Amino acid sequence: MADASKLEQPGRRDFLYIATGAFGALGVSVGAWPLLDQMNPDASVKALASIEVDISTIGEGESMTVNWRGKPVFIRHRTAVEIKASADVPLSELKDPQTDAERAEKPEWLIMVGVCTHLGCIPLGEAGEYNGWFCPCHNSVYDTAGRIRKGPAPLNMEIPEYEFLSDTKIKIG
Amino acid sequence: MNNLKQNITSIARKTAIALLVVSSVSGSALAAGDHLEGAPEAKHVDWSWAGVFGTFDRAQLQRGYQVYKEVCANCHAMDLVKFRNLSQSGGPEFSEAAVKVLAAEYEIEDGPDAEGEMFIRPREPKDSMPAPFANNNAAKASNGGALPPDLSLIAKARGHYSFKDLFMGRDGLTGGTNYIYNLLTGYVDEVPEYILENDHHVNEMGKEADPNFTEQHFELGDSNFNHFYEGYKIAMAAPLFEDSVEYTDGTAATLEQQAEDVASFLIWAAEPKMEIRKSIGIKVLLYLIILAGLMYAVKRRIWENVRH
Amino acid sequence: MSGHSTYVPKSDAGKWLEERLPIISLMHSAAVSMPNPRNLNYWWVFGGIAMFMLIVQIVTGIILAMHYTPHADMAFNSVEHIMRDVNWGWMLRYTHANGASMFFIAVYIHILRGMYYGSYKAPREVLWLLGMLIYLLMMATGFMGYVLPWGQMSFWGATVITNFFEVVPFIGDDIRTLLWGGFAVDNPTLNRFFSLHYLLPFVILGVVVLHIWALHVPGSNNPLGIEPKTKQDTMSFHPYFTMKDLYAIVLFAIVLFYFVFFNPNFMGHPDNYIPANSLVTPAHIVPEWYYLPFYAILRSIPDKLGGVVGMFGAILIMFVVPWLDTSKVRSAKFRPAYRIFFWIFVFNGILLGYFGQVSTTDDFLGIHGVTNLLVSRISTIYYFGFFIVILPVLGLIEKTKPLPNSISEAVLGVEGAAEEAALLAAAEAKA
User: Fold this and answer.
1) Out of C38, C63, C431, whose CB is closest to A35?
2) Most buried one in A19, B170, C76, C425, CB count within 10 A?
């Protein structure tokens, strides 16, 4: 086979080759971004990202589950007993320390994403050792503020962004 | 003599058109194949957004939306366009707060609620533009049997792409907007002279060719006359007149201005990503041209000592 | 693939793998050490470009399928959802739509290059057959892909094409019903077309591997159409042809992305932005541009069965080209008469493409009394005549020009070749 490298040895790793290779690699990596980014939430999904909920019908000691971004959100109208039970717990006993005030903007309303922070199951309400939530999948136990107390879950259940539009209406997201 | 002259001009015109098509292998529809003697020429508008660097004029898109909302929307839906689109970049770019207000002017049925009832709520940015009729049958029934088409994609659906667009560096979207512009400005109250003359011309030729030929006349019927509609008879009555909207930005609402504004709005609605498409395109092409230059140098360097 | 490899594993891991699965040496022989004629011109880059386009289509296609909904009620809007809402969706869809056209452009040039230089002749018949099979699969894939947006042209294109099968004697009606999954083109048709449109590109990819395999056994043809004799006649695939092909791919990508970013609808049809309506046929039904020549052949034959047979025959006849051509000389470079007929064939193909989209009853270029139909019939006759008459007869009677002794002699001249051979021998002796 005729091979010019046998006739004359060109410097293979000279500047031109490196520059071209680098420039090409740059293009390939920038070009790969759209191929990945297309899997992120699209504009129509983002547009549906907030919901408004009427909470006037939830009596004390009652809960409601609403669908937000494809996940259940627990809205619980807590009783005085539940609030006190949660508020009295010293932070040192908690795996993921958060005060009750940090968990609920208005103490009687606990609004959180009802997904166990272990592996994503939905915990059962008014259940478990602390009469909060209990996840049947791997026995994680949450208290009346949705904080993790026992079991494999590492964190408290997530509090979504929400605001009270009025006393009876909240906007989640 | 006159007939002969007409024949020759028409042959020459057809040859020119055919040659243009031969030079293209594109499967695109050909516009205005049968242009009648004496008919007005379709106007080619100088669109701000045409061309490689063209961008939309925000104020024009906002005016166009106003025309759509106050005039077109009475009969035409725009299902694919959501209110939130009005605030996204590359469009009319209303503020998000303004879009909420615009959307809330209309209502939509939602539900079912906790009691299982459907309820009416104001539209939100995530909702689409309101449809004037419940369904196509209702739309037809209210419009003498003609269905006012959805306008979401109309500017692209009425487009035609020619090789000229390629050579002119145009986007290929101007065909549809020029058509809309000409259609909206192409109404006249009475059937014009050139149609009547042509009537006569057609009849003369028909008689020669066929002894059983019966006279044909151009009958408008319930339709309206439009210079630029195929067959000249259009069910839609002239929608726009001088001052049929009052622009909030103080622009004089001439018929031409409104037609231009709404045509631009419609091409944005059909191709909302046009601006980002072009701006990314310029970067991609620049990158590829530089890369091609480098690759050429590499290829030459490698083949330097090889004759081939 | 055929033992050209000079690959010797350096690492222990490399040796370990080589003994068990010699995949690296296989790839090495295919893309690195494969000897290629040194005189290949730029018409030889379109195989690599077609490969690049196939990959672009598969990657963008897989992504589009993540967002597309193959249901008659939702397909149109899901495509618009991709265009409007999905991140970069407009770019990916426009790349896929224009990529299909560019893929066909590359493949058409690739096929015509093969015809010009006689690349289908022995011992490369199987290579040609596999190539034609790829082309046929591409036509099927492209057609089914065009149906997916479920616009007016999608729907009516599908209706027209599936109706072709009705002409099959006795069972035509049943075949058509089977294709439709109903009594007209409808949701079941869309669903199966989506499934097959996803499947076929991978079948194409498989045949491409066979095509490359079949290329590596005899090696590439070249513009002179004579086989390489000495080492001097060839160059290693890498870096010489890899860099040349990559350079050509970048140039081709410039054209592709010009259309994607600045004229994305040019090769489409405006009517496909109108949702499918089974009650209204568009005024002018035209297929995608890459089917137009065959569509013109269909329309030029005044009989339904004859038209369909003619159209499919026009594609199938290409499969037997290696056995129709009787010439001993491969390259048109040394066949002056064939060269003329070849270029008429190319021009005739473009003309057929033109006839595929104009009204058959109109006058051809406005010449009074000469209809498009008449000229398209002449074009059709030439198309078939080229294969059935010109290729076999010309090979027997044509006076060809003398062939050079070797590729290197043709490139370097007799003295130059001897000089280079001496240099090479000296370099090898030194090593």
Assistant:
1) C63
2) C76
In the block, which residue shows the tokens 């109108």? Answer: C274
Residue range A46-172 forms a domain whose CATH class is: mainly beta
Rounded Cα–Cα distance for residues B143 and B148 (Å): 8
**Angstrom distances, CA of residue C137 to CA of C30, C99, C111, C130, C317:** 24, 16, 15, 11, 16
Task: Give me the amino acid identity at C6.
Answer: T
As given in the structure block, the two tokens for residue A147 are 């904080």
Give the span between the Cα atoms of C283 and C272, in whole angstroms.
13
Distances (CA, A) of C33 to C25, C52, C421: 10, 21, 20
Q: Report which DSSP code applies to B50.
A: -
What lies within 8 Å, CB to CB, of C303 at 6+ separation is none
Query: CA neighbours within 13 Å on the CB side: how many for C410?
Result: 23
Where residue C3 falls (left for φ over 0; alpha for ψ -120 to 50; beta otherwise) is left
Enumerate the domain spans of chain B: 1-30+196-219, 34-195+220-273, 274-308
Share of residues in chain C with pLDDT > 70 (%): 99
**pLDDT, average across residues C129-145:** 97
Q: Tokens for C380?
A: 């059709």
Q: Could you say which of A2, A7, A38 has the minimum Cβ distance to residue C89?
A: A38
Nearest to C359 by CA among B33, B7, B24: B33
Q: Cis bond leading into A107, ω under 30°?
A: no
Neighbours of chain B (3+ CB pairs under 8 A): A, C
Token representation of residue C362 = 């109109």
B299 to chain C: which residues are within 8 Å by CB?
A: 243-244, 247
Give the tens place of pLDDT for each residue, C279-337: 999 988 889 999 999 999 999 999 999 999 999 999 999 999 999 999 999 999 999 99
Nearest-CB residue to A8 (from B88, B295, B305): B305
Joined tokens for residue C306: 């004859």
* Backbone dihedral region for residue B169 (phi beyond 0: left; psi -120 to 50: alpha; all else: beta): left
Show me where the domains of chain A are located.
Answer: 10-37, 46-172
Q: In C270-287, which positions are buried (b, 16+ CB within 10 angstroms) versus exposed (e)?
A: bbbbbbbeeeeebeebbb
Q: Is the pLDDT of residue A7 over 50?
A: no
Q: Which of residues 5-34 of A touch C (CB under 8 A)?
A: 6-7, 34
pTM for the full model?
0.89
What pLDDT does residue B33 have?
42
C244 is catalytic: yes
b/e C389-412 (16+ beta carbons within 10 angstroms → b): ebbeebbeebebeebeebbbbbbb
The reply to whether residue C85 touches residue A2, judged by beta carbons under 8 angstroms, is no
pLDDT in tens, C407-431: 999 988 888 888 888 888 888 888 7
DSSP notation for A14-82: SHHHHHHHHHHHHHHHHHHHHHHHTTS--HHHHHT--EEEE-TT--TT-EEEEEETTEEEEEEE--HHH
Burial (0-12, 13-18, 19+ Cβ within 10 Å), A8: exposed
Contacts of A48 in chain B (CB under 8 A): 126
Identify the three-state secondary structure at position C73: coil
Q: Rounded to whole angstroms, how far apart are CA atoms B9 and C371?
A: 19
Q: Which whole-number Å values give the CA distances from B33 to B231, C403, C411, in the listed order?
A: 12, 53, 53
DSSP-based three-state secondary structure for C290? helix
Mapping DSSP to helix (H, G, I), strand (E, B) and coil, where does residue A139 land?
Answer: coil
Domain B34-195+220-273 sits in CATH at 1.10.760.10
B35-49, C248-262, C325-339: the lowest-pLDDT one: B35-49
Rounded Cα gap, residues C307 and B263, in angstroms? 43
ipTM of the complex: 0.93
Which tokens belong to B204? 């003369």
The widest CA-to-CA distance across chain B, in whole angstroms, is: 84
